[in-house]
Amino acid sequence: HVNSGGSCSGPKFLIYVSGALSMWGDRMWHFAISVFLIELYGRNLLLTAVFGLVVAGSVLLLGALIGDWVDRNPRNKVAHASLFIQNISVTVCSIVLMLVFLYKQRIEQIWDGWLTVVCYTVVIVLADVANLASTALTIAIQRDWIVVITGYNRGHLAGMNATMRRIDQVTNILAPLAVGQVMTLASNVVGCGFILGWNLVSLIVEFFFLSRVYRIVPALSIKPPVEEEEQNPVCEQRMERRWPQGINEGNTTQAEPLTEGNCDTSLTCKDGWKAYYRQPVFLAGMGLAFLYTTVLGFDCITTGYAYTQGISGSLLSLLMGVSAITGLMGTVMFTRLRKSYGLVNTGIISSCLHLGCLLLCVCSVFAPGSPMDLSLLVPFINSSSPELGDIPLLPDRSSIHWTNNTLLFDNVPSDTVPESYISIILLFLGVITARIGLWSFDLTVTQLLQESICESERGVVNGVQSSMNYLMDLLHFIMVISAPQPQHFGILVIISVLFITTGHTMYFLYAHKAKKKRRHNT
After folding, report:
1. What is the pTM of this model?
2. Is domain 8-222 annotated with CATH 2.30.30?
3. The domain 267-376+418-521 is classified under which CATH number: 3.40.47.10, 1.20.1250.20, 3.40.50.11810, 3.90.180.10?
């Protein structure tokens, strides 16, 4: 009964709808909060940068503990608590933002302006708590519930993972556009109100749907006790029994209902990282994390660079749409390749495709029209192109349009048109085509983690994986801060490709070990 989830009341459908609502709310909120922080702080990126660092730092420090909490508590309690904390934090944060926008002048006069600082702090802390709760919910639903709902069937699991990723891709494009339109046509206050309303409705619907899934799938109420380190072989045997070649059998072996008595031993951060390092898929997970240290995506850094190269806002929005389509193609490719060649080989093919496409980005650095100028790295030597030297990647915001996750600037000097567009065309061609391999690879590693991590360690290992991803993302922030000029962008591209190559090399090592082990076992 577990796998007959295609119908409108089946568990799969309910998970897709609650996932779509959750992702839409998340994307809208992430986009809106960065806009609000820039608007509040006199159109300066400082608050946004602080917020980015706080979010990354807290997941980095608390990822393992959040995952452990997911492991040690009944599934329904974890889902409901995460959902409640996330939505209430966003709701309160929206109310505070509305008050700040409405009474900004008055607030600035209270306590010699210190009330403003208090408000900013409250906003950033609440938004951070919402993000931590969202991380817990993602680990619980997308890394644990899905595995149980598909009855430990590899084919069904691949299908569900791919569908969730497609929903994610579509919401990533549409949600920021929707909330951006509301904020542009109405005002920031109405934008806050819109997010507030969305969150409250979403909370009720998601709560109801997840409760229903929990009732429909009895296996969700059974959870094994958290294993101690010495018992790891038992866990491995259980995993091997759980994952026969695509057949659903015995998916509750040795598991017992989770009660408070089972989980009295608490975990430290160090134990969490140890558990991650012990996993057979450790290298694959690390490889995925290394892919986060990159400027080759559609974030404000690449788009800021595109502006300095004379690319218009409407063209960028179009390119973003195309990149979403190639991302969706990657999810389709993943399901096809997995069926034909198996999971480990799918990762190898995706890696090669990803790296191949990124070579175009490397070529763009040396192509005609590239502003790369290494002399800037040597202090006190004048740049050969002074008119470009003064424009940082994120120009001063005299007037900003918001589209999607991107800032569009009016006041980029019109004389920054490059002598040739070959470089920028190669760059975007590489970034857009690489997304096919990237998303297929991402899904491969996600499923490897789902299949090979013991049920009692799923939360903690995925928590550490989130920490690793954020750590590598932080590195990419630091890279940009240290080299913010368009002439340095080429160096950032080369460093990004080196990190990505390192990540895929780690995956190749994992694949080699996995194949060797399989040959040894047969």
Report:
1. 0.82
2. no
3. 1.20.1250.20
Contact (Cβ atoms closer than 8 angstroms) between residue 8 and residue 188: no
pLDDT of residue 118: 86
Q: Domain spans of the chain?
A: 8-222, 267-376+418-521
Distance CA(448)–CA(281), nearest Å, equals 7
* DSSP track, 2-63: TT---STTSHHHHHHHHHHHHHHHHHHHHHHHHHHHHHHTTS-SHHHHHHHHHHHHHHHHHH
Low-confidence ranges of the chain (pLDDT < 50): 1-4, 229-231, 246-265, 379-415
Radius of gyration of the chain (CA): 24
Residue-level length of the chain? 522
pLDDT at 242: 64
pLDDT of residue 503: 97
Amino acid 131: pLDDT: 93
- What is the C-alpha separation between 273 and 286, in angstroms, rounded? 12
**In sequence order, which residues have a C-beta less than 8 Å from that of residue 37 and are 6 or more positions away?**
47, 48, 51, 123, 124
Give the per-residue pLDDT at 390.
42
Q: Which residues contact 475 (CB under 8 A, 6 or more apart)?
A: 293, 499
Give the DSSP H or E segment for 497: helix 489-521
Distance CA 409, CA 310 (A): 11
**What is the model's pLDDT at position 326?**
93
* 354 neighbors 297 (Cβ within 8 angstroms): no
- pLDDT score, position 441: 97
Q: In the numeric block, which tokens belong to residue 518?
A: 């399989």
Q: Specify the 3-state DSSP secondary structure of 400.
A: strand
Integer Cα distance of 196 and 204 in angstroms:
13
Q: Give which of 380, 489, 497 is closest to 434, Cα–Cα.
A: 497
Compute the distance between CA of residue 259 and CA of residue 72 in angstroms, rounded to an integer: 9
Instruction: Report pLDDT digits (tens) over 323-357.
Output: 889 999 999 999 999 999 999 999 999 999 999 99
511 Cβ contact list (under 8 Å, min separation 6): 284, 344, 345, 347, 348
Common-topology check for domains 8-222 and 267-376+418-521: yes
Amino acid 233: pLDDT: 55
d(CA 447, CA 161): 8
Q: Which pLDDT score, from 0 to 100, does residue 53 have?
A: 84
